[in-house]
Each structure stands twice: as C-alpha cells, then as structure tokens.
Amino acid sequence: MKSPTKLNLREIVVMASISVVFGVLYLGWIFLGQIVQGVTGPVGHGLMTGFWIMASIVCAYIIRKPGVALIAEMIAAGTEILVGSVSAGSVLILGFTQGLGAELALALFLYRSYRLPVLMLSGMFGTLANFITIYFMYGYSQYSSVITGAMLGAMLLSGAFLAGWGSKAIADSLSRTGVLDNFTLGKVRRQQRMEKNALSQD
C-alpha cells in the first residue's frame, strides 16, 4: 500500500522541473537585487526577497505533501550554483533555511490547509528565515535598528505577497491549463468545479 505522504515519480519530476526553472531565475534575481540595493539600500532589496521562496511554495501548493517545500528550495539552490552562482556555501545555507521556514508554516497546519493565508504565512516564515540567516552571515547588525526593522518589515511583506500570493497565482494559472490534473491541486480544483456546477443546477 502506497503511503499518502510519499512522493511518487510524477511528483518528483514536476517538483524538480519547477525548482530547476526557479533556480535559474534566482540567479538572475540576484543580479537585479544588487542593482536595486545599490539604488534603494537594503530596504528596497528586502522587498525582492520573497521571490527566492517561490520554488518551495509553488511546489508545496501543487503537491501538498510533507517535505516538498524544503526539498524544492534545496533543488533550486543547487541549480543556482550549477548555473553560475559564485557563493555556493551561502546559497545552500539560504536555500535550506528558507525552505525550512516555508516548510514549518505548512507543518503548523499539519499539511492540511493550503489556503491563501497559509501560503502567505509560509512565505513570511521563509523570508523571516532569510532575514535571520543574512543578519548573521552578512553582518547586517551594522545597520541601525530603524533600518533593520524596516528591512525586516519589507521582507515579511515580500514573503506574504510576492512569495505567498504570487506562488498561488502561478500554480493556479498552470492548473487552469490542465497540466496539473493528476496532482493534488488539480484534483482539488476539479472537485471545486464539480461542486460549483452541482450548486448551480439546484
């Protein structure tokens, strides 16, 4: 008997494919982030950090099984290194902490709820983990408490809206094409359509 929490081959392939795409995009986002930080400082850069959590939330929202958020983020981090990141160590550490943060938020709900507020919380946990990691890794204690607080606020907003809401929007768009019909998200959306049609016929 197959475990309901064990990943099957189809889920692994899709998770890996999505994560690889995001890993490539993550590297480009780093260069864009450096430009933004040069112009706006760390607070402006903080508004971009949610993007680095999206692989974990997109995959977790589609597949809805324990461990997916963390594994997806690690695959994305590994891809980022393979395609040209010069900071392999820090990328892997950030990939782990970000993925773990996103994973913990989903675990709080026992992996039973993937509503938008839960996904936004997952994004916020991911960016909070990012903040804690870079605070010590890159010496952000050099900034004043005002700037540090503003940066944290910007990162949490980015986690909620860019990572949480944005990931849901991307996955829902993919689901509408029918390519995710064999995954949990596709099955849930199909059930919702059936219930809606049944209500409209009453």
Structural summary, described in words:
It is a single chain. With 202 residues, the protein is mainly α. It has one domain. It is 77% helix and 0% strand. It has helices at residues 9-40, 42-46, 54-63, 68-82, 88-108, 116-137, 145-176, 184-201. The longest helix has 32 residues, at 9-40. The termini are far apart. Keywords: Membrane, Transmembrane, Transmembrane helix. It holds the Pfam family ABC_cobalt.
Largest sheet: none
Poorly predicted segments: none
**Helical residues, percent:** over 70%
Task: Tell me the series of helices and strands, N- to C-terminal.
Answer: HHHHHHHH
Defining key terms:
transmembrane helix, ABC_thiamin-permease_prd, 202 residues, Energy-coupling factor transport system substrate-specific component, membrane, transmembrane
Layout of helices and strands:
Elements: H1 9-40, H2 42-46, H3 54-63, H4 68-82, H5 88-108, H6 116-137, H7 145-176, H8 184-201
Helix pairs in contact: 1-3, 1-4, 3-4, 3-7, 4-5, 5-6, 6-7
Please summarize what this structure is:
77% of the residues lie in helices and 0% in strands. With 202 residues, it is mostly helical.
